[in-house]
Amino acid sequence: MSSLALAKGNDVFKMAIAIAPVTNWRFYDNIYTERYMSLPQDNGSGYDDNSPINFVKDIKGKYLIVHGTGDDNVHFENSVMMVNEMIKNNIPFDSEYYPNKNHSIYGGKTRLHLYTKMTDFVLENL
Question: Which CATH number does the domain housing residue 64 bear?
Answer without folding.
Answer: 3.40.50.1820
